[in-house]
Design a protein that fits this description.
The protein is an alpha+beta fold and 439 residues long. Helices cover 37% and strands 21% of the residues. The strands form four sheets. A seven-stranded antiparallel sheet has the order 6-7-8-9-10-11-14. A three-stranded antiparallel sheet has the order 1-4-5, with helices on one face. Strands 2-3 form a two-stranded antiparallel sheet. The longest helix is centred in the first third of the chain and has 24 residues. The radius of gyration is 22 Å and the shape is globular. The N and C termini lie far apart (58 Å).
Length: 439
C-alpha cells in the first residue's frame, strides 16, 4: 500500500487531510522523520474492530506471557472510534483506552478528552468523581496545553508527533509527545507527567535547600506532582528554541497537613538576535501576567534571567521570559488561574516567530553557531535545571522523557570566542547583560 510515500516531505500537500481528520497507519520509509499512510474516514471506521479493545483485552497475556499492547496512529482531525469516544483525536501513535465502565459517568470530562493527544493519566472515573479538586483541574489543563502546542507545531512542520504513554510502577505515569527530524523542527517534545509516591532523600534535600521544611514519618514523605514540560529545537538557526514548564506539587506531612505550590515559566533561546521577535515574546507573556497582577511580569522576568544563568560561563541561556517556583498564595484557585493563563500564552508567543523565520536562508557558519549555542543549552539542563535533577533523583522516573529536552545535535569547541562586532558577538553580549525588552 502506497509503498515509498514519504509523508513528511509531502505533508504540506496533504494538510487538508490532516485538518479533516483521518486515521493513519504507521509505515516505515527511508526518511528519518515519522512517515504515515492516510486513510479516509470510511476506511478508518472499518479499522475500528482491529484497534478497539477493552480493559480486559488491554491486560491480556500474549503467547509469550507478556502483556499485549496495541497502538496506532491517528491524524489531527476527529477519528471515528466506535464504542470509545466519538471524535476522539490524536496526531499519531496512541494507545487506545477502554470504554467508560458505566453510562452514569458524565460527559463533560470525556468531551474535553476528545482533543487530547491521549487519554489522561488518571482514570476518567476518578477525575469525574473529583472534578472540583485542583489536581483534577491541573491534570486536564496540562493535557489541553500539550494538545494545543502539539497541534500548532505539527501544523507548521507537516510531520506528526509520536505519542508514548508510560507508567511508573511507584505510582502514576505520563504521556510523551515527540516530533523528531521533521521539516522544521529537529526535535520537539511536549511531555505530561502525573506521578505520586514517596519523596526520596535527594529530592527532599533539593527542596530543603530552597527553604522547604517538612514533618516526616519514618523518613517517608508522600507527594503528588503533575505538569507539562516542553523544549522545541528548530533546524533553522534563525528560529529560536523555546522551553516551557507548568507544574503543581503537593506534599503530605506526618500530621496530615498538606503543603502545595505551583511553578513554571516560558523562556526563549535564540541563536541570533531579532529584537522584534523578543519584544513580541515578552509582550505576550506580560499580557498573560497582567490579567492577574501587573507586578507579576517584572518579578518573574527578573527571576527568569537569574534562574537561567550559566554560572560557569558567565552568561544566560537565552533572552529570558518568565520563571517562578514555590508560589502558594493567594489561593490555589488564584494561582491555578494564573498558571493557566501563562500556559495559554505559549502558542501565541512562539508560533508567529516560527512562521516568520521558517523559510529564512542560513549559511553553514550560522548553523555552526547554532550548534555551539546548543552546547550551552545542554550544559544548563544537565548541571543546573531543577526539573532534570528532581526527575533523575526520583525512583521510577522515565529517563527518556526527562532528557527529551536535549537537542539531537550540539557542539563544543575549545576556547571559542566570536568577534565582538559580529552578529554572534553581539548575541553573546546580550546573554552576558540581560535587558529589559519592553521599556
Amino acid at each position: 500500500m502506497w509503498s515509498g510515500v514519504n509523508a513528511c516531505r509531502t505533508a504540506r500537500a496533504v494538510s487538508l487531510c490532516l485538518r479533516r481528520g483521518s486515521v493513519i497507519a504507521k509505515h516505515s520509509v527511508p526518511n528519518e522523520c515519522q512517515s504515515t499512510f492516510f486513510l479516509n474516514n470510511t476506511s478508518a471506521a472499518r479499522l475500528n474492530t482491529r484497534f478497539l479493545y477493552s480493559a480486559a483485552a488491554e491486560n491480556a497475556k500474549d503467547k509469550t506471557g507478556k502483556k499485549a499492547t496495541r497502538s496506532f496512529l491517528v491524524a489531527t482531525g476527529a477519528a471515528v472510534v466506535a464504542g470509545l469516544v466519538a471524535g476522539f483525536s490524536h496526531f499519531q501513535k496512541a494507545e487506545m483506552v477502554a470504554k467508560p465502565s458505566s453510562p452514569g459517568e458524565s460527559n463533560d470530562i470525556l468531551e474535553r478528552c476528545r482533543s487530547f493527544m491521549a487519554m489522561p493519566v488518571t482514570d476518567i472515573k476518578v477525575l469525574q468523581e473529583h472534578k472540583n479538586d485542583i489536581k483534577t483541574k491541573m491534570e486536564l489543563m496540562v493535557m489541553e496545553t500539550q494538545a494545543e502546542v502539539c497541534r500548532a507545531l505539527a501544523e507548521v512542520d507537516g510531520c506528526d508527533f509520536i505519542v508514548d504513554r508510560w507508567e511508573r510502577k511507584e505510582g502514576g505515569g505520563g504521556i510523551s509527545c515527540v516530533l523528531q527530524n521533521g521539516n522544521v523542527f529537529e526535535k520537539a517534545g511536549v511531555n505530561v507527567s502525573v506521578v505520586f509516591g514517596y519523596l526520596t532523600e535527594e529530592a527532599a534535600k533539593q527542596m530543603k535547600s530552597r527553604g522547604k521544611s517538612f514533618k516526616t514519618k519514618d523518613g517517608k514523605l508522600p507527594f503528588c506532582a503533575m505538569g507539562v514540560s516542553s523544549v522545541i529545537h528548530p533546524k533553522n538557526p534563525h528560529v529560536p528554541t523555546i522551553h516551557f514548564n507548568y507544574r503543581l506539587f503537593e506534599i503530605e506531612e506526618a500530621d496530615g497537613n498538606k503543603q502545595w505550590w505551583f511553578g513554571g515559566g516560558t523562556d526563549l533561546t535564540p541563536s541570533y538576535l531579532n529584537e522584534e521577535d523578543v519584544v513580541h515574546f515578552h509582550k505576550t507573556l506580560k499580557e498573560a501576567c497582567d490579567k492577574h497582577d501587573t507586578k507579576l511580569y517584572p518579578k518573574f522576568k527578573k527571576w527568569c534571567d537569574k534562574y537561567f544563568f550559566i554560572s560557569h560561563r558567565g552568561e544566560c541561556r537565552g533572552v529570558g521570559g518568565i520563571f517562578f517556583d514555590d508560589v502558594d498564595s493567594p489561593s490555589r484557585e488564584d494561582v491555578f488561574e494564573f498558571v493557566k493563563s501563562c500556559a495559554k500564552a505559549v502558542v501565541p508567543c512562539y508560533i508567529p516567530i516560527v512562521k516568520k523565520h521558517v523559510d529564512d536562508v542560513f549559511t553553514p557558519e550560522e548553523k555552526h553557531w547554532q550548534q555551539l549555542r546548543r552546547g550551552r543549552y545542554v550544559e544548563f539542563n544537565l548541571v543546573y535545571d531543577r526539573g532534570t535533577k528532581f526527575g533523575l533523583a526520583t525512583p521510577g522516573s522515565r529517563t527518556e522523557s526527562i532528557l527529551m529536552s536535549l537537542p539531537l545535535t550540539a557542539r563544543w569547541e575549545y576556547m571559542h570566542e566570536p568577534d565582538r562586532n559580529s552578529r554572534e558577538g553581539k548575541m553573546l553580549d546580550i546573554l552576558r547583560h540581560p535587558r529589559d525588552w519592553l521599556h
